Amino acid sequence: MSQPVTAQEIYETAKQLHEQIRTWRRTIHRYPELSFTEHRTSGLVNKTLANLGIETETEVAKTGVVGHIRGGDGPVVGLRADMDALPIQEVNGTEFDSTRPGIMHACGHDAHTAMLLGAATILKRLADQGRLPGTVRLLFQPSEEAQDEEGKSGGMRMVEEGALEGLDAVFGLHVDPVSDVGVVRTRSGPLLAAADKFQLVIRGKGGHAARPQAALDPIWLAGQAIQAIHGIIGRRLDPLQVGVITIGQIQGGTVNNVIPETVTMRGTLRSFTPEVRKQLQEDLRRACRVVEAFGGQFELEIFEGYPPTVLDETATQVMMEATREILGEENVQVAEPITGAEDFSYMAQAAPGSFLFLGVHNPGWEEYYNVHTPQFRLDEDALPIGAAALASAAVKWLQEKR
C-alpha cells in the first residue's frame, strides 16, 4: 500500500508550482470577463486540464467547466473556484493590469481559478501515482457576482444542472484582503449572510413646492418610512440575533420647486437564519405601511438573493486540520460571521461544504486593498497556500472517509 499523502507534501509541491500558478493568475487578470461571458477564461481552464490529462465537461452553467480526476475507489469530493470579474476600472498600474476598459478582477476570482488549476495539477499527479483514494470533481464556476435574466447565478445553475450530484463534500475559498499571507479563517455553521434586495415606490400627490397643503409630499412620506425601516433592527429584532437593513438608493423629484408624485428607494436585507430572513421581510412590509397612515400608497418588491452560507462541521474540521498541517495552529483562525454573501451557499446546501478565507495582504503594505475597489491587489505568495489548502482538504477527506 502506498504511503498516505500529507498536507506538507502537497504544500511542497504547490510551492514548486508557484511560478506557474502566478502565470495563470496574471493571464486571467489581463483579460477579465463579466458574469456568464467567461469564454476565454473557461477556454484556458479547459485547455489546461486537458493538457494534464483530466477529463472535462464544458458549457456547464453556460460558461463553466467541470473536471474529473479519478483515483481509486472512494468518496467524491468537489473543489470550487469562481471565474468572473467586475465592472470596475483598474488603477493599479502593474504590468498585468486589465486590458479591458471598465472590467477588472477586483474580487480575486482570477486567483481562485489559478489556485484550483494548481490544486488540479497536484491531484492529477497523485492520481497517476495511485495515491488518490477517490475522485475529485473540479468546479470552475461562472458568474458568482451577478445573476442572469432568470435571476440565477453560476453556483445556482451548477447545482441545478447536476454538477454536485453524488458529492460527499465540497470545498472552496476566497481571498481575504484584511488577513496577512499565511493566515486563514473559517468556521462551521453560518459564515456568510443571505442577501436580499428590495425596491420601495412611495406614491403621493404632486404639486407646487409653495403649496404643500394641496399636495401629498412623497419625500416627506419617505422620511417617515425611513425612520420606521431603520427601527426594525433596533426595536423589532431579537438583540441576540443578527440582521442588517440598508437603504442604499433614493430617487425623487426633478427640480427644487416641484413636489414629485413618487419616491423610489432601493436597499438590501442581510440575515443568517431563515427565521430572521422571514422576519426582516415581514417587518419591512409593516414599516412601509406608515405611509398609508398619512394617505400615501406604496409598492414594495423583495427579490430574494443568495441564501446564507452555512458550513458543515465535519467538512470544516477537515479543512482546518489540513491547513493547520501547512500553516501551524496559530495561523488557522476561527472566523466571525460576515454579512457579505456568496453563491457557494447553494453548493453547501447540495453537499457538506466548507469555505476558507485566505489571507492575501502583504504585511509590508501600508494599506489594505479591499475587494470591489479599483485598487484591489493581492500578494501572490498566497497562491501556493490556496492551491495546497484545496488539494489537502480534498485528499484528507478522501483518506479519512473512504
Please report which band the strand proportion falls in: under 5%, 5-15%, 15-25%, 25-35%, 35-45% or over 45%: 25-35%
CATH class of the largest domain, named Alpha Beta
Give me the secondary-structure category.
alpha/beta
CATH fold call of the largest domain: Aminopeptidase
Residue stretches low in confidence (pLDDT < 50, at least 5 long) are none
The name of the CATH superfamily of the largest domain reads Zn peptidases
**Measured distance between first and last alpha carbons:** 15 Å
Quaternary state of the chains: single chain
Count of extended strands: 16
The largest pleated sheet is described as:
8 strands, mixed
Order of helices and strands: HHHEEEHEHEEEEEHEEEHEEHEHEH
Q: Within the largest sheet, what's the order of strands?
A: 1-2-4-3-5-16-6-15
CATH architecture of the largest domain: 3-Layer(aba) Sandwich
